[in-house]
Structures are given as structure tokens and as C-alpha cells.
UniProtKB/TrEMBL annotation:
Entry keyword annotation includes Iron: no
Regions annotated as coiled coil: none
Listed SUPFAM superfamilies: Protein kinase-like (PK-like)
Annotated ranges, domain Serine-threonine/tyrosine-protein kinase catalytic: 1-102
Protein name per its UniProtKB record: Serine/threonine-protein kinase
The organism's taxonomic lineage, starting at the top: Eukaryota, Viridiplantae, Streptophyta, Embryophyta, Tracheophyta
Stretches assigned to the S-locus receptor kinase C-terminal domain: 108-147
Keywords: ATP-binding, Kinase, Nucleotide-binding, Serine/threonine-protein kinase, Transferase
Domain of life of the source: Eukaryota
Length: 147
């Protein structure tokens, strides 16, 4: 689910692009976006893919059932990069689907560097302890029913 839809209930054409990016990364990795990775318990798929990308180890995202060789590594890296471009935080930074199709079909098209995905969250125990706060609000809800 795109961040603008999850947070504000706003759906746009870039919401589909976000979902497509998640799907691409799920297919490449063979893992679902939700859930926790045993490699690093505080990472979801998007943050795991982002961490590998930034560390120059993006091919480690590849599912073991997909054969990897030097001939298709360029295509795999391109798919990971396109997936990360699609899941960028700001919808203005995400490409349109027509651009995604062009990026995937043309190896000659240069791609911009992706920015950090919105759901990138690495937390350790100290972060969780220091950020726990609670706000209590008194709210009254009135339901009007017809006679």
C-alpha cells in the first residue's frame, strides 16, 4: 500500500507504481514485503532491499531458486533499481508506469539513483525505549439516529 494512501487515504496513479515496485522486489527476492527477515529482525523487504542496494550487495536479494549468471545479473540489478525507484517516499519522485515500462524494456536508458523508501525503518532496543510516549485525548462521539 502506498504511503500517501496508508497515511492520508489519497489514491493516485503513483499509488499503483508503488505497488508495482513492491511486487517486483517480492518476485526477485521470493519473499513477501510484510514480515520480518531473519537476517536482521528489524527490516522489512523494502528496507532490506534498500540496505543491500546502498551497500553494493543488491544481488544478495535474489531468491536462490532464480539462477544468476553474468548474462542476467545486469537485468536483475536493473529490476531491483526500478523496484526501488517505484517505492520511493515521495510520489513525485516515483516514475510513471509508462516510464517504468521504458526502463524495463531498454537497457540503454540510464536510470536515476533511487532515494530511500518510505518504509525504511531500522530500530534497535534503545530507539524503541526512548521513543515510547503516550497521548490521551478525550473524544466524544455522537451518533444521530432517525426516528
Amino acid at each position: 500500500m502506498s504511503p500517501e494512501y496508508a497515511m492520508d487515504g489519497v489514491f493516485s496513479v503513483k499509488s499503483d507504481v508503488f505497488s508495482f515496485g513492491v511486487l517486483v522486489l517480492e518476485i526477485i527476492s521470493g519473499k513477501k514485503n510484510r514480515g520480518i527477515f531473519s537476517v536482521e529482525p528489524s527490516l522489512n523487504l523494502l528496507s532490506y532491499a534498500w540496505t543491500l542496494w546502498k551497500d553494493g550487495k543488491a544481488l544478495e536479494l535474489l531468491d536462490s531458486s532464480i539462477s544468476s549468471n553474468s548474462n542476467n545479473n545486469l537485468q536483475i540489478m536493473r529490476c531491483i533499481q526500478v523496484g526501488l525507484l517505484c517505492v520511493q517516499d515521495r510520489q513525485e519522485d516515483r516514475p510513471h508506469m509508462s516510464e517504468v515500462v521504458l526502463m524495463l524494456n531498454s537497457l540503454n536508458t540510464s536510470l536515476p539513483e533511487p532515494k530511500q523508501p518510505v518504509y525504511f525503518s531500522v530500530r534497535d532496543a534503545s530507539d524503541m525505549e526512548s521513543s515510547s510516549s503516550c497521548t490521551v485525548s478525550d473524544i466524544t462521539v455522537t451518533v444521530i439516529e432517525p426516528r
